[in-house]
Structures are given as structure tokens and as C-alpha cells.
């Protein structure tokens, strides 16, 4: 598991038995990106961590990249669900699946909507299915 951009590293608590590797030093299968404080971008530019993923040979890239956002980026011109973003990820070999959830439905302490983006490498993408945690969850 690799973690970038998560000051508290909550993923260590979510998956305490998983080995944590720093993605800069080793290849990882799962990369979790916390984007809760991210501001709306003014252009479709790539982030530095995206450049790192793209610079790795395709077979060594993470199999699954999960991004955790506030719910409002679904409306951003250059947000995680925008055509520019999804096309960019498709071009480097990833399928994009996004879903809004209420944090309390997955044992979160704060009642807030969150947007989860799951980017799966194309060679395993057909296996990705959202769990039916709640019938009222929105799939984008």
C-alpha cells in the first residue's frame, strides 16, 4: 500500500495489517490519495503524483488508485469526473469509476458526502465492482 497527501495517514488505521511502502521507493499495488483539502484547478494539468505514476512502466504501475474527495468536485470543470481527467487516465491505461458516499454509511464519524474515485489498471479493470453498501449511493 502506498500513501501520498494524507498528513494523518488514516489508511494505516484502516488497514493496520497491510505493509506500507513509500511509492517513491517501491512499486505498490494500491495507492490512496486524500484530496479533501484540494482547491478547484484552473486547468487540466497533471499533479506531480500523476507524473510519477505515468513515468513507471505500465506493468509496474499501481493496480488500483483510490482518490478521496469532498463531494463538490463532481461539478468542477477540471475535476476528477471531467472528460479531460478521465481521458488522461484512459490514455495511460486506467479505467475510471467514481461514486459518492455518505461517510457514516462506511463507519465514518462525520456525516458528510465524499467522492471516491477508483482508477483501475485496464488489465484488471473489468474486475472492479462497487460493493452495494447502500442502495441510495450515487454511482457517477
Fraction of residues in β-strands: 25-35%
Query: In total, how many domains does the architecture comprise?
Result: 1
Q: In angstroms, what separates the terminal alpha carbons?
A: 26 Å
Q: Assign a percent range to the helix content.
A: 10-25%
Low-confidence stretches: none
Give the integer mean of the pLDDT values. 78
| Structural class assignment | alpha/beta
Number of strands: 6
CA gyration radius, whole angstroms: 15 Å
Please describe what this structure looks like.
- With 140 residues, the chain is an alpha/beta fold.
- The chain has one domain (2-139).
- It has helices at residues 11-14, 48-55, 83-91; strands at residues 2-4, 30-34, 64-70, 94-102, 113-121, 138-139.
- It has a six-stranded mixed β-sheet, covered by helices on one side.
- The longest helix has 9 residues, at 83-91.
- It starts with a strand and ends with a strand.
SSE topology:
Layout: E1 2-4, H1 11-14, E2 30-34, H2 48-55, E3 64-70, H3 83-91, E4 94-102, E5 113-121, E6 138-139
List the main descriptive attributes of the protein structure presented here:
single chain; 140 residues; alpha/beta; six-stranded mixed sheet; 3 helices
Give a quick rundown of the structure.
The protein has 140 residues and is of the alpha/beta class. It contains three helices and six strands; from the N terminus they run βαβαβαβββ.
Amino acid at each position: 500500500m502506498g500513501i501520498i497527501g494524507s498528513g494523518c495517514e488514516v489508511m494505516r488505521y484502516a488497514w493496520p495489517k497491510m505493509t506500507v511502502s513509500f511509492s517513491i521507493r517501491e512499486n505498490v499495488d494500491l495507492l490512496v490519495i486524500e484530496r479533501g483539502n484540494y482547491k478547484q484547478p484552473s486547468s487540466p494539468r497533471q499533479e506531480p503524483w500523476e507524473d510519477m505514476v505515468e513515468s513507471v512502466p505500465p506493468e509496474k504501475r499501481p493496480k488500483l488508485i483510490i482518490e478521496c474527495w469532498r463531494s463538490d468536485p463532481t461539478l468542477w470543470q477540471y475535476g476528477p469526473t471531467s472528460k479531460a481527467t478521465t481521458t488522461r487516465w484512459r490514455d495511460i491505461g486506467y479505467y475510471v469509476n467514481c461514486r459518492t458516499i455518505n461517510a457514516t454509511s462506511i463507519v465514518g464519524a462525520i456525516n458528510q458526502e465524499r467522492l471516491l474515485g477508483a482508477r483501475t489498471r485496464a488489465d484488471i479493470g473489468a474486475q472492479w465492482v462497487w460493493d452495494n453498501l447502500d442502495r441510495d449511493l450515487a454511482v457517477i
